[in-house]
Design a protein that fits this description.
141 residues, mainly alpha, elongated, Skp_dom_sf
């Protein structure tokens, strides 16, 4: 521990840790951006599917309904869930969920299915998928 070799190696390790932290931060931001883009894409695809199904069935308004359960951590969380409800009751005959999902899935398959999913640029795609040590070294530079 007091040698110059130990100090050199300790400094190298510190530098590598810093490089890894920078690389991990960049990857985290890229992944979050990719996730945001895909969540929005999924939402717009489902909204378009809902519009198509509604038009087919002569429906003028489509609402989202979620069932509230008692699995909330406490009464505050339960109250929050209840206040976020938009629909208190509906006749199940009006539920178009299965058809909307079928329309959205058909569109997804027509666009190429899972093979159509891209992370963004090829660089982002490679870094998110591979995450190799060489790429960590590149991120450090």
């Amino acid at each position: 521990p007091g040698s110059s070799d130990h100090k050199t190696r300790s400094d190298e390790l510190t530098e590598m840790r810093i490089g890894f932290q920078v690389w991990a931060g960049v990857q985290d931001r890229r992944l979050k951006e990719w996730h945001k883009q895909w969540m929005f894409k999924i939402y717009t695809d489902l909204a378009a599917g809902a519009g198509k199904v509604a038009a087919e069935r002569g429906i003028d308004l489509v609402l989202i309904r979620e069932d509230v359960t008692q699995d909330a951590a406490d009464s505050s969380e339960l109250v929050q869930r209840l206040l976020l409800q938009k629909v208190l009751y509906y006749d199940g005959k009006l539920d178009i969920t299965d058809r909307v999902l079928a329309v959205a899935n058909e569109g997804f398959l027509k666009r190429g299915g899972p093979d159509s999913i891209k992370f963004g640029s090829a660089e982002v795609d490679d870094k998110l998928r591979l995450g190799t040590g060489a790429q960590m070294a590149d991120a450090k530079r």
